[in-house]
Design brief:
311 residues, nine-stranded antiparallel β-sheet, single chain, mainly beta, binds 6-O-phosphono-beta-D-tagatofuranose
Length: 311
């Protein structure tokens, strides 16, 4: 792997994993090459926008809890994905002979550095990572596709995940940026921009509901919002900031907080960590899954930034 010789990028190792550390005039970030997983994003003079578990383990073959894991080519439990998404898996998975990992297989795969660029005016550092479906993942999902994740670190954070169908038949898949946001206190935040959206409550036997107003967190929350608007916000009274998420080519989003009981069952997760994080995961899941013709490409994009609360 080329050792990057850029002033704002350093290659380092943590535990078993190679990481890229980015530091420029506007922000710093940490990216694990495994899973192309962004772990931290900290604008200059601000607290990190992303939450990373203090118990995160940097081990091969295991996603770290936090940052922005990439879920692809299915979301969560594969059995809960659209039929057309599930039918893309190897027959052994459908019959139960083979186990399919939650959230697909690319978040624990080795991605390659394709390019690193520093904007002339030091506005942003852009890292492009690539992954191509090859063995052993073909044994789970026997299709040819290339993934390219572009991560731009500057005043704002920008992610662009391009899927190219390199196969001779259509691809059907679900995907998500599983974004863990850092917050002051779960009792002092609310999610906005979801008003009047229908959502599936995975904790209420996947029944459909409709969001009334802003979403405050008072218990375990695990909801899949449909027909979402491009702009979502997480308002944080405690840290006097609003985190903005702008999604492109995505009209579904998952909102998750494990609360007390589930936190006790989660790996890499302190018992009280539920008070300091919320996931808002912009996605293409359920009816919003992708159908890509041979040779076609799709770009899932996310822009993330924070602003002080308006007085
Ligand atoms: O964020 C939605 C979700 O599917 C939750 O149900 C929970 O399982 C979470 O993802 C974490 O998944 P992970 O496999 O990373 O532990």
């Amino acid at each position: 792997m080329p050792s990057p010789n850029y002033s704002s990028v350093q290659l380092l190792q943590r535990g078993e994993l190679p990481l890229l550390h980015i530091e420029n005039a506007y922000a710093s970030a940490l990216i694990a090459l495994q899973g192309a997983q962004l772990l931290t994003y900290t604008p200059l003079g601000s607290a990190s926008l992303l939450w990373l578990s203090e118990h995160a383990e940097f081990r091969r073959g295991q996603s770290m809890r936090g940052g922005i894991p990439v879920c692809w080519p299915w979301f969560g439990d594969v059995a809960r994905n659209a039929d057309a998404v599930r039918q893309m898996l190897h027959a052994g998975v459908i019959t139960g002979e083979k186990k399919a990992p939650a959230h697909g297989f690319v978040r624990t795969a080795d991605w390659q550095i394709y390019s690193i660029a520093e904007a002339d005016n030091d506005e942003a550092t852009e890292v492009v990572l690539r992954y191509s479906t090859t063995n052993p993942t073909l044994s789970l999902w026997p299709h040819a596709a290339d993934l390219q994740l572009t991560i731009s670190v500057g005043r704002k954070l920008r992610l662009r995940l391009v899927t190219l169908n390199r196969d001779t038949k259509p691809l059907v898949l679900s995907q998500a940026f599983h974004t863990y946001l850092a917050i002051s206190d779960i009792n002092r935040v609310d999610a906005r921009g979801l008003d009047d959206c229908r959502y599936i409550d995975t904790l209420d036997e996947w029944r459909e509901h409709r969001q009334q107003g802003d979403l405050r967190f008072t218990a375990e929350t695990d909801r899949i919002y449909c027909d979402t608007r491009p702009q979502l916000q997480l308002r944080d009274e405690g840290w006097q900031r609003t985190i903005h998420l702008r999604a492109t080519n995505s009209t579904s989003a998952v909102v998750w907080n494990p609360w007390i009981e589930k936190s006790r069952r989660l790996s890499q997760f302190a018992p009280d960590a539920w008070q300091r994080m919320v996931c808002i995961e912009t996605a293409n899941v359920l009816d919003d899954h992708l159908m890509l013709a041979p040779g076609a490409a799709h770009s899932l994009e996310l822009e993330l930034w924070s602003e002080p609360l308006s007085p």
